Structures are given as C-alpha cells and as structure tokens.
## 1
Amino acid sequence: YDSSRGNKILNAVKQGKGIVMHIPGHYVAVGPNEKCSSNQVYLYNVGKKTDNGCYTPEELFKKTYNYRDRCTGNGKTKNNCGWKAAFAYNGK
C-alpha cells in the first residue's frame, strides 16, 4: 500500500469525483457517498456486491489487492495483484 496514492484517491473523491479502478481481470468504481466518513470512499463492486461499502484507502487496497486470489496460488505472481490504474472523472 502506498499512502500517497491512497491520499490522491481520497482527495479526488472529496472533490466529488468518481474513480474507475483497474484490478487485474476486473474493474471497480470508487466515489463519494453520504454514508462514509471524511477519511473514507465508497466501493461500488458489481462483481462482488457484498464488498460494497465505506473504506479508508488502505482498507480499500487490502480488500481489492488479491481480488479472486489472482496473486496467490497456481503459480501466479505479485505482478498480477493490486491496483494497476485509476481514472478519475468529474461527472460533468
């Protein structure tokens, strides 16, 4: 986990931006939600709706880092783990 990148995500969400994040083999959306505290973002994961909710950026990373065990077992490598890209949108 890289706190400077996590802070960039948190700051973008605080500005009202939505973010699409690429995790190997999957995309999730992150954005503002009135349920979340000031240090949290809301995870929108259509592939695993039970994960939807408020998270700090570090908690979000831990929740999505090894999505569907893509970086453990079966000879998989750490290169297939975590966030690969994040794209922020201002909704306008």
## 2
Amino acid sequence: GMQTDEAPNLMGPHRLFAGLGAAKISFIASHCTSAHCIALAQSGGAYAWGRNESGQLGLGDTATRPGPVPIDSLLGSGSTVVSAATGKAHTLFLLEGGEVHACGASKQGCVGSKFNTRAEFEI
C-alpha cells in the first residue's frame, strides 16, 4: 500500500512490544495473507494488532489497531490461550482445554457454519 505520515513504513527493526510492560510473549501468529498479528503471552493472554475490517482482531469492532491491544473477550473463557492462527480476515484461538474460538470474516465457514458470509465477528 501507499505510505502515509499516519502509517509510515519502518525500514529497520523497532521495539514493537515496548508498551506491553512485563508481558512475556511466547508465540506470534501471522500469515502471508494476513494483515494482522496475534501475540500470545506466557500468562495465557492474547494481544492483537493490524487490519480489522472484518473483526479479525476479536476486539468487538472493526477499527484498525497500529499496535498490540489485549483481547479482553478471551479472558472470560477461564482457559489459557495456547495457540493461534490467522487467515486473510479471520483468526482462530486454541485454548488449553482444546476449545477453539474464532473471529472475523465467515467466508467459506472459516469461523463456523452458524454465521453467514457477511463480515460477522464472534468470540
């Protein structure tokens, strides 16, 4: 995409997680088709950032996030998030008990068959 002053390209490494305080990140999920990332903390929490036009960040809205934001909706599940995977406009979260949570675009049923193909998001 085109570079703007609001979202400049960074030509070198920078500290992405400087704003997360003491959180220790154990896993980062992204994909070549994704324009968003998910980071999992050793404590079991999850953080999301990037494009969010289909709700793929799991934050309950469609606002783009330029940096990591905690996914509070996963905290009430009572389980630790142990893995995550991202697609073009959806995200899957694997909890330690084997439960899978999904959010984002429901094209081809990638977030579950009970949702239609419009941009619905649910965790």
## 3
Amino acid sequence: GKESRNNTKMYADNHLRTDGRQEESLKQILSKASLRGQRLLIRNLKTEDYDAFAELFADEDVLYYYLPSRLQTYSGSTLAELMSDWNDLDTAFVFTVLHEQKPIGIITCESVDFEMEHAEVGIALLSSAERGQGLAAEAMTIFIDFLFRDLELHRLNARIISGNEDSCKLFKRLHFRHEGTQRDYVRRGSRYLDMNIFGLLARD
C-alpha cells in the first residue's frame, strides 16, 4: 500500500547502478537497508540469523519445492557457505524478515542484472506458525517496492515449482503474471517437475 511505499523510500535519489563508483554505494545500501511495514522489519541477512534458518534448511519436505536445484539439506558450515553465496551483494542478496524482533522468513533476490534492470525473487517463511497470517504478502510487498523504487529495477521474475500452490497463490496475489512453463525442469528422484515462470513489471 501507499504507507509501505513511503516507508521504504529512505535512500539517495541518484541512480543506483553497479558501475564505477556506485558499486560500493549499492553494497552499503543493501547491507544497511532497513525496510519497515506495519508488522514487519526486513533487513539484509546477518550471520546471527543462521540459527533461525536451520530448521527450514533441514526440512526436506519444504526444500522439495523451495530449492530449484538438487534436493539436499544444509546445516552448520554448509548453511553458512550457502548463505554467503546467496548474499554476495553483487548478483544476489538475502533479506531476513523479522516479526516482533524474531526472524520468521527469508527473502532471496538473485540473478540481479542492473544493466538489464531485472532480478529473480523468492520467499520462504521459517515455520508453519507464521503461515496463513498474510506475513509473506506483507513482506514481499515491502521488498518489491524497494526493488522498483530504490534499486530502480524494471522487471522481477519468480520461479515456482509445480505443486507449490501456496507460492503460486502468493505471487498471483502480488500481481505477478504466469508467463510460461519449463517442462520437467526439476528432478526429484525418479520424478521430473515443471518450473512455472512468473513476471512482474514496475508499471504493473
């Protein structure tokens, strides 16, 4: 809504591109970003969040639909390595969703291309206790506004594995459009699952 859009506009008005002198400025913005909604605080990932993420990345049932790559669990050093890779503040970054000062979710932004002005986004809540309260929609609304307004992206992509109905409903609610399907894209044992491609433009 309008209130969340106003709350997230807190950075310099110059074009935030990753060329030349502005690359370091962009990393500083991402690492220090603090986005507030009515119930949530969203900020860049911190190492202190890893323990909260441990349950999510140990749950094969959740990762079955969350990870677009090989299905495996992560913990300890492997989880830290994964998070460091996902949060390189260059082509990818991770934000933590906090409710009442407690981490409850993770938002990923990857395949970031500032020249083409697009990126891929995803979200997961850390446990079933946080689901069904509209928290994912609130978090993504705030985050999407940050990407369009502050980072001046033009297009956002979301990839959703077939069978993940909750994510499909969420991104449709956020006005993403289903733009195509990559057939048999994800392998799970002897099964192959389709990958659904959703897109949202800044003008949408």
